[in-house]
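Obj: model holo form, ligand = adenosine monophosphate.
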Amino acid sequence: MNPGARLIVLGKQGAGKGTQAVRLSHHYVVPHIATGDMFRSAVRSGSEFGTKAKEYLDAGDLVPDDIVIGIVTERLTHDDTTHRGFILDGFPRTVQQAEALIDILAPQKIDLVVNLDIDNETVLRRLAARRVCSDCGANYSVTDNPPRVTDICDVCGGEVVQRDDDTENAIMRRLELYERETAPLISWYDEREMLATLSAVGTPDEVTDKVVTEVDRRQAPEVAG
Ligand code: AMP
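Output (holo structure tokens):
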């Protein structure tokens, strides 16, 4: 079995970040940690925290850093992440979150930050077709990758729906926030030589193959000479 991996998957909405993160978590046999899924599940639970989070999610706004850092810190102390690693999806989204992550993981480090690169036109087309399982968060596309039975999740049998925040306004707001808050993370990780930028255009299999090849290349011990 492969040794696992500690990876961050970055990319704007519609880059296939969620799909790739799930596939990578199966490949490396490590948990998929998606902050968006954690917030959506809090919203569904109807807790006080969930009600507050819903306001940010519905508007397409970022949840404040201290709240997000708190839930990720708690999650990354569970045994299932400390041995073989994890795939982080949707976190970090700001430089402040990236800085906090260094402290959360120390003395361990991230192996690689995978930046899935895509143009805005393709994003808008993909997001209009995006559907997610309301129970397990699996991603589908009505055009490219529909569930086998209409509206029923292949993985868990849950209901497959359009996300409440996949409205045109919220999508535009998230793209704007991505450019302002999250895009600076790309140069931040690049300066630290932790970044691999790969094109997100292609079938899910093609993109996963590219990512795994790159992660394995970086993890391979250097050949002398
Ligand atoms: P996602 O499923 O990753 O698109 O996240 C859905 C929503 O959850 C985002 O639009 C934000 O409102 C919130 N969210 C998820 N992750 C973060 C994060 N790391 N920082 C701030 N807000 C987040």
